[in-house]
Amino acid sequence: MAGNSFGKVFTLTSFGESHGAAIGGIIDGCPAGLKLDFEAIQTEMQRRKPGQSAIVTQRKEEDDVKFLSGIFEGVTTGTPIGFVIENTNQKSNDYSHIKNIYRPSHADYTYDKKYGIRDYRGGGRSSARETACRVVAGAIAKQLLSEIKINAFVSSVGNIFIDKPYQDLDFTKTESNSVRCPDMDSAAKMENLIKKIRKDGDTVGGTITCVLQNVPVGLGEPVFDKLHAELGKAMLSINAVKGFEYGSGFCGAKMKGSEHNDVFNPDGSTKSNLSGGIQGGISNGMDIYFRVAFKPVATLMQNQETIDTKGNKVIAEGKGRHDPCVVPRAVPIVEAMAALVLANFWLLNKINKLND
Amino acid sequence: MAGNSFGKVFTLTSFGESHGAAIGGIIDGCPAGLKLDFEAIQTEMQRRKPGQSAIVTQRKEEDDVKFLSGIFEGVTTGTPIGFVIENTNQKSNDYSHIKNIYRPSHADYTYDKKYGIRDYRGGGRSSARETACRVVAGAIAKQLLSEIKINAFVSSVGNIFIDKPYQDLDFTKTESNSVRCPDMDSAAKMENLIKKIRKDGDTVGGTITCVLQNVPVGLGEPVFDKLHAELGKAMLSINAVKGFEYGSGFCGAKMKGSEHNDVFNPDGSTKSNLSGGIQGGISNGMDIYFRVAFKPVATLMQNQETIDTKGNKVIAEGKGRHDPCVVPRAVPIVEAMAALVLANFWLLNKINKLND
Amino acid sequence: MAGNSFGKVFTLTSFGESHGAAIGGIIDGCPAGLKLDFEAIQTEMQRRKPGQSAIVTQRKEEDDVKFLSGIFEGVTTGTPIGFVIENTNQKSNDYSHIKNIYRPSHADYTYDKKYGIRDYRGGGRSSARETACRVVAGAIAKQLLSEIKINAFVSSVGNIFIDKPYQDLDFTKTESNSVRCPDMDSAAKMENLIKKIRKDGDTVGGTITCVLQNVPVGLGEPVFDKLHAELGKAMLSINAVKGFEYGSGFCGAKMKGSEHNDVFNPDGSTKSNLSGGIQGGISNGMDIYFRVAFKPVATLMQNQETIDTKGNKVIAEGKGRHDPCVVPRAVPIVEAMAALVLANFWLLNKINKLND
Amino acid sequence: MAGNSFGKVFTLTSFGESHGAAIGGIIDGCPAGLKLDFEAIQTEMQRRKPGQSAIVTQRKEEDDVKFLSGIFEGVTTGTPIGFVIENTNQKSNDYSHIKNIYRPSHADYTYDKKYGIRDYRGGGRSSARETACRVVAGAIAKQLLSEIKINAFVSSVGNIFIDKPYQDLDFTKTESNSVRCPDMDSAAKMENLIKKIRKDGDTVGGTITCVLQNVPVGLGEPVFDKLHAELGKAMLSINAVKGFEYGSGFCGAKMKGSEHNDVFNPDGSTKSNLSGGIQGGISNGMDIYFRVAFKPVATLMQNQETIDTKGNKVIAEGKGRHDPCVVPRAVPIVEAMAALVLANFWLLNKINKLND
């Protein structure tokens, strides 16, 4: 009810503020018998953690996940998987300057109004540090769905866009550069832009595209829990996300039906794929692809006018260690959330017809 | 689990295929003591129903909702509100021609693969007729939230867009034209476009913008159930929707933080509102606005190449009574879903802090 | 949230007051491909309905269930099964005498205090008429679980108890008498007792024993959703139930471990079965048996002292058509609820380990 | 879904095996603004922990709970409360002798069959150690419900019963003796019995009675989530519980309606209280009381015949450190679960009618 759980069958419930003792979570509903690759999990953690390169925040957080239950001799037992990630590098004093102010376009004001109390240190629960738990659960979900290929990448930063269809990209190059853009020309331009933005003490937004391949036909539930509706919710629940589109997306809204319809091949695949791999909320076996818009990070390395908790005008100082552009680090988060959505539907799909 | 319920507190569970005896639903969790305005409910039903004007389908469905429980002497009792809407005008024989074929970009193929069985008549459960139940529940949610103003309207059809900010529009004009566009010039152009498209036996997509005003501060739950994540899911669950953005949306992804941040006024309101009335997933009291993309309807009044259930090439004939453009009729559905999302968070908000 | 749904996977949501237009429900999550035996469903309805014999209420309710969706050509489609049962025989005027009074040991007072409003006609939502919806869903669940045998029977009325273990009973005799007691001697005594009680305008309590056989090993979830915890909740949710015990039950609390432990046979079955077929909340393949206590019906055919809604002393008149003993009619309800519990765990069991 | 969460609004999700690194949980939905008394929480932990007295297991577990989130400067923030309790005293080697055997009346066999894998050390997830997490959450729920008095006590051990109504007992004496029985004469007899049983290497069952006082009118949801149905489920989910009854319970099943009905006083209270403080599933303001049956612990300090995982006959040796009678230590667990049930309904009750 309080919004800290995701998934009805393969369920992640997370906890933790950025400057408490630890963050962590419980994964309930992971089937028994899954042999876990812990290195692969840690690799995903590394992809998300701060301080990886010159274009992201220099905060160092080791983000070592410690599993406490649900695994016996490396294999899931069907019981809940509890885990914690200690907050080793928090410097709470860094945040005393924001104790009594509401930073612009942050959650300070709304948390205070909603709860009447706020752990102001590092944004508390509203910090993107929470997404580390999503990456843990997503990494396990990926292992459950070993047949499915999940590839996200940065498709734009500011006004620099990859101008190729995803089919022309080599996803193995995504991790080859600090922007996580598989198109090397665009990657270089994006990197330069971010460096420039950073020098100005500013931030910039961008988009991530995600492609899901080898998804079995039949995932998704009709009506309210359509596959793309859950994907949309999952993505919109990530900090800083402002938009989601799949298949033809907003462009599709300009098209005519005669252009937009995907004609079938005899085997049930389709010649075009403006549907984005989903029809009636259910996967049809074609590639699923979607795009996620991230706003620029609100924390600037500039002074900004704002108010304190009493409504007085004050200056929010630009200090701390923050990302000039969040999208490269959000790539593993997008993949993790996609994996969680798919894992849920994949499990549910085992019970929606008899004689399966 | 099976995706036919929406909302955790104020919950709509719906049932029904387009050509069964009836569709209907149960609204569970509506607080006791709400005096219902049944005429207002029926007005919403009229807005959604087919056959309202020259630019929508000529199917006549009366869509009279019959309440069966949960209401005593016109007032909600706190017990579940059951309702049915009879399918009076279904012509099942109209559909015998699609019994064994998979229509392009419909849910025929995916339902068949998922369930191994399909009520092919009129699309069965995948028919947009299901949205009538959403409108019933949304109409009640609107009455619960009498302070909040919910206004959706058609903001584009094909390549015709309203080129004004929503603040310059007069929402009282939305219902003055058949397109449900409050900008009269754009409305006329859209109407002409739809008529032309219709004559060609084709269809066209469009977008709906929705503005939520007077929303109390504090609605939305952090992390997974952010207010905009639930709005996004709600919208993406509507048939034919391909994208959702709120506040600055996809444009925000091109911006710099110094441009995007909303500076506070002393009263906690903000000078700009690129955040779209939501910060950290929680309403901040400013207007919430979002945009929803609808693809063109897949059913054309043209013959289309497709396959039958055995994979043979066949021609899907263009017949029946269908909308050339679904967006005008989707306006009340967008509003209904927004109302359901808000009602849930509005109720939840009563229990998230002590001494409320 | 509001308590009108049962089951997380195979979910019944019900609605309806005893004197509204209809009661009904939605069964969501029934797998596709189940060929329904409608006669078997109606047979269960007949078992529950009033007016079956001399020892139950003479109210005549036909309780014909009308399915509205989710079934195509007699087979479930995987979409929600909506159904209604019309309230054809309600005589609302019968209840004007209780409009302003709180009947002793009924829910009149608590509903009024909880909701501030109450549909007083026939007890409204608190009427046991609501259980008809459970019987519909249970009848379908039984068909899903065709391998499992579910047999409930009346094991005591007042102080008359069957003094044999269930293994000595022939369940095919349960329906042979109006009390639904498979032990013919006890049945005759119970019937006489009920007739006598009825003549006095009084009512009497009793117990129902239920035996579940052929249950696969592995049903039930550990910790909070233990199989017997869900069975207990299911039974305690039936009107008038005051207690639940399974296996050795309250007697087990007097025993020593050396007496109580069930010794294994080589095949995993156990020599004794004081565990009642469940160990650690999970079925072990042995018979599951439990006992449910029903209080005497609160409505008497006698005048009773009570209060009106203002707190004045008044006399509640004994009139209307009521059961002197509710347990015979509760037998199919107990079976239905057991079937719902089992159906949920049976479906869940398909996803709790890999390579199933 | 997988049964490791309890409560829909104030939700405990727990994890942990008895011999993993730690057990723990997440409490989601605790309202913001509750000032926590950590000493009171630790006191509850002490009541449950092993090694408290001569009549319980001599295992020493410190059971120090460490809160990781959701609390700021001693006050709940509305965000999830994560906590861990380290397993400091586990001796996994103690359990190598049960690695390949199924102990009688334990969950070894059923876990293995259900999941295909089992953490055999100390019973793994099926260990009652899991209940420590319930006590943590229950202790916080108690603080939320500061007005409500929750008193559980041992009402029988083996054949020794308190033969007084609860109204004649002084609950302040419950903690004065090692059996947690407020009737000193009975307590002495029970203690002697347990010592004798222990000397024999045997175990014995018992019952706990729990009384809830000062419960506001209106808690509980009608139909499936009746207050006593949730209490019953909560109790039946505790290890070793075989039965639950409230109010008149199984005795009520022998009574006549004219004896059983509770006559109202003018203020809405009732002269008698066979209803047990609940009518129609909703609290009526009178004392709620219920009784819970616990079977004798299955682990004996005697050798027992059993089978190994291959079905061969083997002897399960009686060793380790176990309770001869679990009921004294279960008293705080019963209270904790009652508190969780009440907290959920207490919160839900804030949203079930308008103008509250």
From TrEMBL, chains A, B, C, D:
Enzyme class: lyase
Name by which UniProt lists this protein: Chorismate synthase
Superkingdom as given in the UniProt entry: Bacteria
Family from the record: Belongs to the chorismate synthase family.
EC numbers for this chain: 4.2.3.5
Residue ranges of coiled coil: none
UniProt keywords, alphabetically: Amino-acid biosynthesis, Aromatic amino acid biosynthesis, FAD, Flavoprotein, FMN, Lyase, NADP
Sequence positions that bind NADP(+): R48
UniProt-listed Pfam families: Chorismate_synt
Entry annotated with the keyword Transcription: no
Molecular function via GO: chorismate synthase activity; FMN binding
Organism: Aequorivita viscosa
Xref: CDD domains: Chorismate_synthase
Annotated NCBIfam families: aroC, PRK05382.1
